[in-house]
Specification:
Structural class: alpha+beta
Strand content: 15-25%
Order of helices and strands: HEEEHHHE
CATH architecture: Alpha-Beta Complex
Largest sheet: 4 strands, mixed
Number of helices: 4
Number of domains: 1
Helix content: 40-55%
Number of strands: 4
Length: 151
């Protein structure tokens, strides 16, 4: 059973890597943030279109490894329709899940990243787009980096 679940998770990650969702610039974005992972070379820009405190649309552009690209793709799907507070809470859940392997709360398809904790070099790849999300929501002008992550 565990092997089947692991295979499914790998298939979801590969699908989002090969055919990333919401992979385009967003001219109507109300906020954005650049993210960089110097360890792996992942580089992305995340775009958000806000309506008050609600994320109406999300997209990204950039290059990186499969985990980084899949994480950004799944993030952009997941945060649409979420409030700023809900997105910030999800960041905390995802960060904990990626670093410990423990899924707390309903994170939907994002649970595919629970196994990343077994590969410490990939933790920063998986969390990069989430740091960019927080940077965009806070209106940070300078690029965010994964160097603040402990793994």
């Amino acid at each position: 059973m565990f092997d089947d679940l692991n295979d499914l998770y790998q298939q979801v990650i590969l699908d989002h890597c090969k055919q990333p969702r919401n992979f385009h610039e967003m001219p109507a974005a109300t906020c954005s943030a650049q993210g960089f992972n110097p360890l792996c070379g992942d580089n992305l820009k995340l775009f958000l279109q806000m309506d008050g405190d609600v994320i109406k649309d999300a997209s990204f552009v950039g290059s990186g490894c499969c985990i980084s690209k899949a994480s950004a793709s799944l993030l952009t799907d997941y945060v649409k329709g979420k409030t700023k507070v809900e997105a910030e809470k999800t960041f905390e859940q995802v960060r904990d899940m990626i670093t410990t392997g423990t899924v707390n709360g309903d994170v939907g398809k994002l649970a595919v990243f629970a196994g990343v904790h077994k590969y410490p070099a990939r933790v920063k790849c998986a969390i990069l787009s989430w740091h960019a999300l927080i940077g965009a929501l806070k209106g940070e002008a300078k690029p965010v980096s994964t160097e603040s992550e402990s793994n």
